[in-house]
Amino acid sequence: MFAVVRTGGKQYRVAAGDKIVVEKLDGEAGSSISLSDVLLAGEGSELQSVEGLLVSAEIIAQAKADKIVVFKKRRRQNYRRKNGHRQQHTILRITAIGDHKAEKKADKPTTDATGAEAPAAQA
Questions:
Q1: pLDDT (tens digit, 9 = 90+) per residue, 5-58?
Q2: Where is the signal peptide (predicted)?
Q3: Is 5 exposed, middle or buried (0-12, 13-18, 19+ CB in 10 A)?
Q4: Which of 17, 26, 89, 108 could cysteine-pair with 102, CB 3.0–4.6 Å?
């Protein structure tokens, strides 16, 4: 199942288990939030009603984007101004869309050089 959500003035197409980078949202890393501004939802080519639909997400980290240098110059006027800016953003992991939750990835069995499955390590 997928959904299109709006946050920070931008729209994002998300599915359960996706990681997205959005404009800064309040919250600490590890806390859960819900995105209520759902514009579209569906599965495959079939669309569903979005009334009351919530997209649940977990905050992975609060971070800053790369620095953008703003340089202004007027030639022959001895006018130069240099400023920089780093936009703050939030990294989210989508945990559920409505009642559809993200599936946990199964651990892959380890194999040795011959391609045979190696026995599990004893602890």
A1: 999 999 999 999 999 999 999 999 999 999 999 999 999 889 988 898 999 999
A2: none
A3: buried
A4: 17
